[in-house]
Structure formats: C-alpha cells, structure tokens
TrEMBL record:
Pfam families: MerR_1
Keyword Repeat among UniProt keywords: no
Keyword line: DNA-binding
CDD domains (UniProt xref): HTH_MlrA-like_sg2
Gene3D superfamilies membership: 1.10.1660.10
Organism: Flavobacterium dankookense
Upper lineage: Bacteria, Pseudomonadati, Bacteroidota, Flavobacteriia, Flavobacteriales
InterPro entries: DNA-bd_dom_put_sf (IPR009061), MerR-type_HTH_dom (IPR000551), MerR_fam (IPR047057)
Entry GO MF terms: DNA binding; DNA-binding transcription factor activity
Protein name: DNA-binding transcriptional MerR regulator
Domain HTH merR-type span(s) in chain numbering: 11-81
Amino acid sequence: MNVNLQEGKRYYSIGEVAKAFDVNASLIRFWDKEFDILKPKKNAKGNRMFTPEDVKNLQLIYHLVKERGFTLEGAKTHLKEGQKKTLDKFEIISKLEAVKAQLTAIKNQL
C-alpha cells in the first residue's frame, strides 16, 4: 500500500497517519501498543507523533495484517524472525505496484 503523506515532515499526527492508511486512529493506537517496532514520540499534550520510520513500520504491519491476512501474533512472529527480509519484500512489492500502475497508465493512453 502506498501512503500519501506530505514529504519532508519530521512528525505526523495520528490523524494524518490514520487518514493516509484509511483506518481509524484507534487501530493505530492499538497497533502502537501491540507492536514493539512502533515507537512514536509524544508531544507535551501526550499526543502520538509518528516519524517517517514509524510510518514505514506501520506500512509493514498494515501489509501483513490487512493485505496478507496475518493474525497479530503471526505478524509479530514474522517481524521478529525476519524483519529485514520482510521489509525488503515489502519494498519490492511496493515498487512493482508502482511499475504496474505506470504500465497501466501507458496502456490506457494507447
């Protein structure tokens, strides 16, 4: 899943992140509690502020849970056993989806 967030920002609010993933903020909060790889900062009010690295980790969690149908425990195990390997596969899939979209756009122009 490609996430459309304003680039160049150091932190994103939970609302921005939830909107980008098209999920409720409560799901993002739940995943924050469940997955150790998420480490959002908190501002003076206690609101979660996600870094681009956190967003990348959320993309990975979203991919495993929502797109591939992993259970939470299965996703946690998968991340612990091969986080680097999983991240590499996810990046390859994202790039292939972008290429597919470009090819479809070219095909439609013909």
